[in-house]
Specification:
With 278 residues, the chain is an alpha/beta fold. The chain has a domain of 180 residues: P-loop containing nucleotide triphosphate hydrolases (Rossmann fold, 3-Layer(aba) Sandwich). Helix 6 links the parallel strand 7 and strand 8.
């Protein structure tokens, strides 16, 4: 993946200036499978340094929308723009080179490699993509790997095989692999699934810190996490964009409450690690 803005060492104490062009923008984005509409005319615009959460009941179209954005499937109609550039026709690996990183709902680490080497591979791929095939310097790789693992709390497990990690730690490893590439847009699909309460709390703090140096699209079922992390929330329901707004606006939105079986959408909870889909 291309390194688009600075390095992983950015601390988040000073936010870089926003640009007028959205980092991510979709227009009329739609996908049908055998005549069944999974995503229908979704328009979303995410500005630089924003943490945007994408939520919705099961079957709302979140995974399909994410697949369209990252290039894992082609839209039936509509467009995807990244930093003002139309990337609708680009393959997933080409979008990665432009500076899009993403984690999957199902973990995708290299089980037979240790934690350090998993992250190092991600760094080497990022540098090669940015520098037209040139290799990353060993010192550069070590620095990025160390910083990424420290930020997710895995610095003590560098020699552990990824396949031997607990599921929650595999999720953290995936996040470290994305962070080490210093993406312009970081898409996280269900990142807190399998995390312990204390790990989830650290994840929330990490996301808020990262928004100073990157833009984040967060697909998440854990509503306390969403409310704690997001600047704005987009709600999908039956493939359509149902509502957009701040956490407080979404919590008060009657249509959103109805989509979540009539229950009030929580702003926070006793523990962000409690998980649970609304």
């Amino acid at each position: 993946m291309a390194v688009a803005t600075g390095t992983i060492g950015t601390t988040g104490t000073a936010t870089e200036p926003r640009t007028a062009t959205p980092v991510l923008e979709t227009r009329g984005l739609s996908k049908s499978f055998g005549g069944v509409d999974a995503v229908i005319d979704v328009d979303i615009s995410v500005p630089e340094h924003e943490v945007r959460a994408l939520i919705g009941p099961n079957g709302a179209g979140k995974s399909t929308f994410t697949g369209l954005v990252v290039g894992r499937m082609e839209p039936t109609r509509g467009s995807v723009r990244f930093d003002g550039r139309d990337i609708t026709a680009l393959a997933a690996h080409e979008r990665i080179r432009l500076g899009i990183a993403y984690t999957f709902q199902i973990t995708s680490v290299f089980a037979e490699l240790d934690v350090r080497e998993n992250v190092a591979l991600a760094v080497r791929r990022a540098v090669a993509g940015l520098n037209l095939g040139r290799r990353a310097r060993p010192r550069q790789v070590r620095q990025r790997v160390d910083e990424a693992l420290e930020r997710v709390g895995l610095q003590a497990r560098t020699a552990t095989l990824a396949g031997d990690l607990a599921y929650g730690h595999q999720r953290l490893l995936e996040i470290a692999m994305g962070l080490a590439q210093a993406p312009r847009l970081f898409i996280m699909d269900e990142p807190t699934q399998g995390l312990a309460p204390d790990e989830t709390e650290r994840f929330v703090a990490l996301v808020r810190e990262l928004s100073a140096s990157t833009t984040i699209l967060l697909i998440e079922h854990n509503m306390p996490v969403v409310m704690a992390c997001a600047d704005r929330i987009s709600v999908l329901e039956a493939g359509r964009l149902l509502a957009e707004g701040t956490p407080a606006e979404i919590r008060a939105n009657e249509a959103v409450q109805a989509a979540y079986l009539g229950r009030e959408v929580p702003v926070d909870g006793p523990d962000v690690g409690a998980g649970g889909s609304p």
